[in-house]
Design a protein that fits this description.
five-stranded parallel beta sheet; 7 helices; 5 strands; globular; binds adenosine-5'-diphosphate; binds beta-nicotinamide ribose monophosphate; binds magnesium ion; Nicotinamide riboside kinase 2 isoform X1; kinase
Length: 237
């Protein structure tokens, strides 16, 4: 059984923190970080990042990321999770060797069409504008934010891509990034474990006809089906 789980959402929502905790807790689990796919060589990081009409280097647009390369990496995991795990130093646990999880982590996970249908579960962390701006001001990126970047580029691009995602009907499970790290971790871990249980039950032989039918809407999680719909969460601007 293979499960691809997206940990997406707003910058500074807590994606990397949550992903690191899940990675430690889940067996046979690998990770791919979207920001490893910036079209920006280490020593000339800005050359391939265009300046946009907003006057800023376009760090927060999809075109600044090599999404084809990210998709190739996901395909490599799909074709052999065991081989991928070994190559990335992840030990495969023999007692759970039929189950493999891939975490995809990043701020634009659900805007690249070839990837969208591959997820078994799509999480989306949100925090209000003021909290996001404050957390961002405390971060040290490899390329420091120039003055005005957050209001002039980062937040408008977040709003734009999120609106597009919602308009396209991409179904995500919203997570409130204002909850504690521990609460978020427990909530998502439990949900992933439930998905795994549902998947393994679906792989059992079909129940006898007298058994009541499984309720609709909980059959997510395996076979790269769509995540269950979640109520849209208002975005504090
Ligand atoms: N649940 C949380 N509550 C408060 N602060 C958090 C939480 N999760 C992460 N942080 C902090 O917010 C900042 C951004 O976290 P990070 O995981 O790097 O976010 P992202 O990868 O979404 O940009 C870091 O300083 C981190 O310690
Ligand atoms: N990783 C890099 O090379 C790099 C450089 C400049 C800005 N960023 C910022 O990283 C953000 C995405 O990462 P987080 O979601 O972890 O904040 C984007 O908002 C982008 O502005 C990343
Ligand atoms: Mg991050």
């Amino acid at each position: 059984m293979k499960l691809i789980v997206g940990i997406g959402g707003v910058t500074n929502g807590g994606k990397t923190t949550l992903t690191d905790s899940l990675l430690r807790a889940l067996a046979n689990c690998c990770v791919i970080h979207q920001d490893d796919f910036y079209k920006a060589p280490l020593f000339q990081p800005q050359d391939q990042i265009a300046v946009g009409e907003d006057g800023f280097k376009q760090w927060d647009v999809l075109e600044s990321l090599d999404m084809a390369a990210m998709l190739d990496t996901v395909q490599a995991w799909l074709s052999s999770p065991q081989k991928f795990a070994r190559a990335h130093g992840v030990g495969v646990q023999p007692e759970a060797s039929d189950t493999h999880i891939l975490l995809l982590e990043g701020f634009l996970l659900y805007s690249y069409k070839p990837l969208v249908d591959l997820y078994s579960r799509r999480y989306f962390l949100t925090i209000p504008y003021e909290e996001c701006k404050w957390r961002r001001s405390t971060r040290n990126y490899t390329v420091p934010d120039p003055p005005g970047l957050f209001d002039g580029h980062v937040w408008p691009m977040y709003r734009k891509y999120r609106q597009e995602m919602e308009a396209n009907g991409v179904e995500v499970v919203y997570l409130d990034g204002m909850k504690s790290r521990e609460e978020l971790f427990r909530e998502v871990l439990e949900d992933i474990q439930n998905s795994l249980l549902n998947c393994s039950q679906e792989e059992l032989p079909a129940p006898a006809p007298a058994c009541p039918a499984r309720p609709q809407g909980r059959g997510h999680g395996c076979g790269h089906r769509t995540a269950r719909p979640a109520a849209s969460q208002p975005d504090t601007v």
